[in-house]
Amino acid sequence: MTMTSSDIRRTFLDYFARQGHQIVPSASLIPGNDATLLFTNAGMVPFKDVFLGQDPRPYSRATSAQRCVRAGGKHNDLENVGYTARHHTFFEMLGNFSFGDYFKKEAIDYAWQFLTAELKLPAEKLLVTVYESDNEAYELWTQHIGVPAERVIRIGDNKGAAYASDNFWSMGDTGPCGPCTEVFYDHGAEIWGGPPGSPEEDGDRFIEIWNIVFMQFNRHADGRMEPLPKPSVDTGMGLERIAAIMQGVHSNYETDTFQALIKAAAGVTGATDLSNKSLRVIADHIRSCAFLVIDGVQPSNEGRGYVLRRIIRRAVRHGNQLGARGAFFYKLVAALVEQMGEAYPELQARQAVIEKLLRIEEEQFGKTLQRGLSMLEDALQQVTDKVLPGDLVFRLYDTYGFPVDLTNDVARERGYQVDLDGFEAEMQQQRQRAQQASQFGTDYNQQLSSKQVTDFTGYQHDTGNATVVEIIRN
Ligand code: ATP
Ligand code: MG
Ligand code: MG
Ligand code: MG
């Protein structure tokens, strides 16, 4: 019988609980211990201070299924959604952690045991990478576990921008750091892509499933690498990627959870072709939006709130492209509750709140979407060099509420690029105008333009300066 995503989550946590790990519930997407981080983007984030020895816990081994968002900041997979088989804005990271307890041998043993004995994956489909100079990990894989040497790949950290891999992890410029080892799954020769370390590694044939970090050193400001007295382990495996493998499909979007969301999205948009890329985007986006709302984020014009707003608007645009007229996105919350409500009771508890908030935001954007799209369409017809000029991108942003990544999304689908530098220059000018305007006192300007603002986009959720700037701008 195939395992559902829920089965896999439970099997993982149970397995590590049996190996003496404390099961720790998922923390919020808003990191409680790090103001510099936009969102929780890995399972280790809530344990940062534990690794640093600043947050003592009654256990030295932990396991979790941590909700993560990678849609802004250092880790941003927003542009990958709809284009790769393996990236989401929201996903769950399954992890096991050793806080100065076990190290490389046990970590590698556990990972291999879990994949090949618990999940019964065929060993010959798995490849591993190690950090180029980490002979210890290399020998553990080849000799202790017995993975053939041609499937253990050494990866360095200075291969240039064309390569995504780099097998050395660090928490920051200073502090804990160390080599990684990663497990990849070969989805078969009919899929484009090469093994890690090859020029085709960004393809989706060999998909990274598990990343294991050995926190081995403490890096000092002068670059000195001091071995940690008690090295630690941090691992992360994407639930959706392992679910795809266990369900015998290639793309995460073909798994149980996503198929249910895609069908629901087709239902509310009127789309008939279930393989349509826009349905995947919408299915992805409802998860990040709903969970961000649960964790207290509200659409706004800056910071986390603007990331949420951008994701919602992108989803709305994709729905529009599929033929949806009127609000549809909020209707998917029910399908999400059905899929994930058991693992996340707060989803069910806050269903009505999430629906209401999404609906307001959707309806608001719906007012300007059509006009913005037809302006964009005209521009696409006229542009001759396949680059959308910055002032147009700015006007779409300023007048029609099109986040620049949304415009870019449309442009990319049609084989156009966006003049980002030109857009930035326009933004800069506007900031200056806003500053000058505010020197004359805000009353007149606000009176003059607040009507336009409510007519167009009505940023009614905003409080404080963002609103004022927005009003002056218009
Ligand atoms: P990739 O190279 O495929 O982008 P990554 O190296 O950026 O993945 P890590 O930061 O090592 O990913 O995260 C640990 C694990 O979390 C990955 O091995 C993968 O299984 C999963 N993962 C990472 N990013 C995503 C994402 N955007 N969507 C779904 N799963 C992800
Ligand atoms: Mg990545
Ligand atoms: Mg990677
Ligand atoms: Mg990785």
TrEMBL record:
Subcellular location: Cytoplasm
MF GO annotations: alanine-tRNA ligase activity
Superkingdom classification of source: Bacteria
This enzyme's EC code(s): 6.1.1.7
Keywords annotated in UniProt: Aminoacyl-tRNA synthetase, ATP-binding, Coiled coil, Cytoplasm, Ligase, Metal-binding, Nucleotide-binding, Protein biosynthesis, RNA-binding, tRNA-binding, Zinc
Cofactor(s) the protein requires to work: Zn(2+)
Subcellular location, principal: cytoplasm
Cofactor: how bound: Binds 1 zinc ion per subunit.
Catalysis: reaction(s): tRNA(Ala) + L-alanine + ATP = L-alanyl-tRNA(Ala) + AMP + diphosphate
UniProt domain Alanyl-transfer RNA synthetases family profile: residue ranges: 3-474
Domains: entry comment: Consists of three domains; the N-terminal catalytic domain, the editing domain and the C-terminal C-Ala domain. The editing domain removes incorrectly charged amino acids, while the C-Ala domain, along with tRNA(Ala), serves as a bridge to cooperatively bring together the editing and aminoacylation centers thus stimulating deacylation of misacylated tRNAs.
Family statement: Belongs to the class-II aminoacyl-tRNA synthetase family.
Record function comment: Catalyzes the attachment of alanine to tRNA(Ala) in a two-step reaction: alanine is first activated by ATP to form Ala-AMP and then transferred to the acceptor end of tRNA(Ala). Also edits incorrectly charged Ser-tRNA(Ala) and Gly-tRNA(Ala) via its editing domain.
Name of the protein this chain belongs to: Alanine--tRNA ligase
Species annotation: Alkalimonas collagenimarina
Interval of the full protein contained in this chain: 1 to 474 of 875
